């Protein structure tokens, strides 16, 4: 095996290369193991090993070969890394096990195209160097946040949440952390290939991460901490939307909340009220009055039917929303990024056979997209930037909402993925968003993981999973602004583009000659 690896690493021509099947299988394997670098495993070193194996597998390969090598890597990455979707599709979507696996495989093939295009471009237009391999990686991670509405998961930078390299997050965001990871991974290959020069930029990046971690962009406000209670109801997903279980759901949350009246803020999770606001107005009025009488603000996830907008659009406009009421509290946030097959079903008339049990679930189909320019919720004089569930995976969306806020709040219902790595990976993203924006993140979920995360991205307290629980904390409002909040992803994207332009201009002539000879 070592001899094969050295031959793959040191080959200088096509006639010296291993057969194509070897780099193809190595890249498939390296993509499949990548998610072990993320929560709940935290084997961060795999985030170095995995792209390093892809980098070495692409050496001296034609663009056509690079396409399939990258596709194999992407397929392994998404099939294993996002296999937590199986629970929602099979268990709660009532889809046959074989069809569920085929659907995940199809998703992995589609998402794998990102890496296929990335590696084709790398071998077609650029020299083989970390300074071209890395910026292409960053651009394609960024593309996953917006192409076809985006699926921003499994980024290399998340492997270093709370460790070593995350000092770059408040400066330039998660993509800067990913940039550093991929430089280190590909530089390691070059160092093993006796290009010792790469020790210098690697050391500088590590030194920069250490130095960045010492910078404080934000500080607590003089105002007294906000006393917050998060209510985790632990409602099973298969019962949550049943008509006969709705009253019991409300009673569970009411009973858990009884002891919390009088605290500054009480937060219920996403869709903790399984009814539209128009169907439960007396209950909402009672909660508002209770909050005002006790001096508590109340924030809850609720499906919202905008009747005025429905008349204007001549169709029902339903939103997954977050509503604030009670003492000195006001605001309504409508979710901006919806989950395909989660909150709306693309081509639902044609695809009704795929997820039969979800077609009549009001939480799964027919939600509308909220506007981009929504105001933050106001609680006790503090603006709260909101993110509902999956939205927190979008770095720039969270950054935009976080502008001029004192706290970040996110509600979620990860019961869809009970027993999988999905909820842990989701929490890891919340940590990264907190660190990027320098704000405490208040996270209330139905089954877990409910948590308080400080401005450094560290979990201060969290509730146990799959259990009814009340999590209490006293949180300081923060002031100041990180570079990432101010400048977004543009600095790291601009630097990556600069490297690619240099790489294209100064590429060796044999890059083009090789391509023409192999067409």
Commentary on this structure:
With 519 residues, the protein is of the alpha/beta class. It has two domains: 2-9 and 20-216 and 487-508, no CATH class; 221-479, Nitrilase/N-carbamoyl-D-aminoacid amidohydrolase. Helices cover 45% and strands 14% of the residues. The protein has 19 helices and 14 strands. It has helices spanning 2-10, 21-33, 46-57, 63-81, 85-92, 97-125, 130-143, 169-172, 174-192, 199-212, 237-240, 246-257, 281-294, 307-313, 395-402, 422-437, 483-487, 490-505, 509-518, and strands spanning 218-220, 226-232, 265-267, 297-305, 318-326, 329-334, 377-379, 382-388, 407-412, 441-445, 451-453, 459-462, 469-475, 478-480. Strands 12-11-10-9-8-7-6-5-4-3-2-13 form a twelve-stranded mixed β-sheet. Strands 1-14 form a two-stranded antiparallel sheet. Strand 3, helix 13 and strand 4 (297-305) form a beta-alpha-beta unit. Helix 7 crosses helix 18. The longest helix has 29 residues, at 97-125. The model is unreliable at 11-15 and 358-364 (pLDDT under 50). It is found in: Cell membrane. This is Apolipoprotein N-acyltransferase. It comes from Acinetobacter stercoris.
Key phrases:
globular, 19 helices, 45% helix, 519 residues, two-stranded antiparallel ribbon, 2 domains, 12-stranded mixed β-sheet, Nitrilase/N-carbamoyl-D-aminoacid amidohydrolase
Rg from alpha-carbon coordinates: 24 Å
CATH class identity of the largest domain: Alpha Beta
Strand order of the largest sheet: 12-11-10-9-8-7-6-5-4-3-2-13
Low-pLDDT segments: 11-15, 358-364
Overall 3D form: globular
Which class do the helix and strand fractions yield?
A: alpha/beta
Strands, total number: 14
Percent helix among the residues?
Answer: 40-55%
Report the CATH topology name of the largest domain. Nitrilase/N-carbamoyl-D-aminoacid amidohydrolase
What is the CATH-assigned architecture of the largest domain? 4-Layer Sandwich
What's the domain count? 2
| Percentage of residues in strands | 5-15%
Please report the distance between the alpha carbons of the first and last residues. 32 Å
Would you identify the CATH H-level superfamily of the largest domain?
Answer: Carbon-nitrogen hydrolase
- The overall pLDDT average reads 90
Question: Counting H and I runs of at least 4 residues, what is the number of helices?
Answer: 19
Largest sheet: 12 strands, mixed
């Amino acid at each position: 095996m070592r001899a094969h690896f050295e031959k793959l690493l040191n080959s200088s021509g096509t006639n010296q290369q291993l057969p194509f099947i070897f780099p193809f299988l190595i890249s498939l394997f390296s993509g499949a193991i990548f998610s072990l670098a993320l929560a709940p495993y935290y084997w961060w070193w795999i985030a170095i090993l995995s792209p390093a194996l892809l980098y070495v597998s692409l050496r001296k390969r034609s663009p056509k070969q690079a396409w399939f090598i990258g596709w194999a890597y992407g397929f392994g990455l998404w099939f294993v890394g996002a296999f937590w979707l199986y629970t929602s599709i099979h268990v709660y979507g009532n889809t046959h096990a074989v069809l569920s696996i085929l659907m995940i495989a199809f998703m992995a093939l589609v998402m794998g195209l990102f890496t296929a295009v990335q590696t084709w471009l790398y071998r077609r237009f650029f020299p083989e160097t970390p300074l071209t391999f890395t910026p292409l990686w960053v651009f394609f991670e960024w593309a996953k946040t917006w192409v076809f509405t985006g699926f921003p998961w499994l980024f290399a930078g998340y492997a270093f949440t709370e460790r070593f390299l995350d000092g770059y997050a408040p400066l330039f965001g998660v993509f800067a952390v990913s940039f550093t990871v991929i430089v280190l991974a590909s530089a390691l290959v070059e160092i093993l290939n006796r290009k010792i020069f790469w020790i210098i930029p690697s050391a500088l990046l590590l030194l920069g991460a250490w130095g960045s971690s010492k910078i404080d962009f934000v500080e607590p406000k003089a105002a007294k901490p906000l006393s917050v209670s998060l209510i985790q109801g632990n409602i099973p997903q298969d019962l949550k939307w049943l008509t006969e279980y709705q009253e019991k759901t409300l009673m569970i949350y009411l009973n858990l909340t009884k002891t919390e009246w009088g605290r500054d803020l009480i937060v219920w999770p996403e869709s903790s009220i399984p009814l539209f606001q128009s169907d439960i107005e007396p209950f909402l009025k009672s909660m508002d009055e209770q909050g005002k009488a006790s001096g508590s603000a109340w924030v809850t996830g609720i499906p919202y039917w905008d009747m005025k907008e429905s008349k204007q659009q001549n169709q029902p406009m339903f939103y997954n929303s977050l509503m604030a009421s009670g003492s000195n509290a006001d605001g309504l946030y409508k979710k901006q990024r919806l989950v395909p097959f989660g909150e709306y079903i693309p081509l639902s008339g044609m695809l009704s056979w795929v997820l039969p049990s979800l077609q009549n679930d009001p939480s799964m189909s027919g939600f509308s997209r909220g506007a981009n320019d929504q105001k933050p919720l106001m609680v006790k004089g503090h603006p709260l930037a909101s993110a509902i569930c999956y939205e927190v995976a979008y770095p720039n969306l969270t950054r935009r909402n976080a502008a001029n806020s004192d706290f970040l709040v996110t509600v979620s219902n990860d019961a869809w993925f009970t027993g999988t790595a999905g909820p842990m990976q989701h929490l890891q993203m919340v940590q990264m968003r907190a660190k990027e924006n320098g704000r405490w993140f208040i996270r209330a979920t139905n089954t877990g993981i409910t948590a308080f995360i400080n401005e450094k991205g560290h979990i201060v307290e969290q509730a146990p999973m799959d259990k009814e629980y009340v999590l209490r904390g006293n949180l300081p409002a923060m002031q100041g602004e990180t570079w990432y909040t101010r400048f977004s992803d543009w600095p790291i994207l601009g630097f990556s583009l600069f490297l690619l332009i240099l790489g294209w201009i100064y590429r060796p002539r044999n890059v083009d000659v090789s391509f023409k000879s192999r067409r």
